[in-house]
Specification:
The protein is of the alpha+beta class. The chain contains 2 helices and 4 strands; from the N terminus they run βαββαβ. The protein has a two-stranded antiparallel ribbon. Strands 2-3 form a two-stranded antiparallel ribbon. A hairpin with a 6-residue loop joins strand 2 and strand 3. The longest helix is centred in the last third of the chain and has 10 residues. The chain is globular. 22% of the residues are buried.
C-alpha cells in the first residue's frame, strides 16, 4: 500500500486521524495532516481507505 498526501489541499478537518490515528496525525501549528506510518499493516487497509474517503479536501490517495 502506498499513501500519498497532498498537504497543499488539506483543510485540517482531522477526519483522517479519527479513521486511522496510528497512520495519520495533524501538525500542532496548523492542523495539516502528516503521515505517521508509511507502511501500515495490511489489516489497516480498510481504515486507511476510509480516511481517504472521508477527507473533505480529497488530500489523501491510497494505492494498493
Amino acid at each position: 500500500m502506498k499513501i500519498i498526501i497532498d498537504q497543499d489541499k488539506c483543510v485540517a478537518s482531522g477526519q483522517c486521524v479519527l479513521a486511522a490515528d496510528d497512520v495519520f496525525d495533524q501538525r500542532d501549528e496548523d492542523g495539516i495532516v502528516v503521515l505517521l506510518n508509511d507502511a501500515p499493516s495490511p489489516e489497516r487497509l480498510a481504515d486507511v481507505q476510509q480516511a481517504a474517503m472521508v477527507c473533505p479536501a480529497l488530500a489523501i490517495t491510497v494505492e494498493e
